[in-house]
Amino acid sequence: MSWPWRTAAAPSGIDAEIETTPHFHVFMVRCADGSLFTGVTFELDDTLLKINSGRGPQYTRTRCPAFLVYSEEFMNVSDAERRAESIRQLGRRDKEGLLSESSLAVLE
Asked: Residue 36 domain-assigned?
């Protein structure tokens, strides 16, 4: 998979390197039929707009609207893809458990 992230004029220093390094998101959306879809993107907002306009992944095209229910951020695509695949391997009950754990962490 190709990741055509945008490049910008890079300021100098370590902080600048972190700012210009793309961050990859593992995300999970709950579709209108209640199903869960897990994906990887570097532009989360754009991906959610595509999904809800019917131009996203094949799975979500007939299941709109979809709502973001989970996301994690990674510094490289290989870690993000690995995490997404581990989430995809979970059963429905385990995915729901992951969602409830993440919502509890937000509340703390």
From this structure: yes
| Rounded CA separation 89/104 (Å) | 23
**pLDDT tens-digit profile of 2-55?**
455 444 444 555 555 555 677 999 999 999 999 999 999 999 999 999 999 999
**The overall pTM is greater than 0.70:** yes
Residues 6 or more apart whose Cβ sits within 8 Å of residue 100? none
Residue 15 lies in a domain: no
Parallel, antiparallel or unpaired: strands 24-31 and 66-74: antiparallel
- Spatial separation of the C-alpha atoms in residues 101 and 52, rounded to whole Å: 26
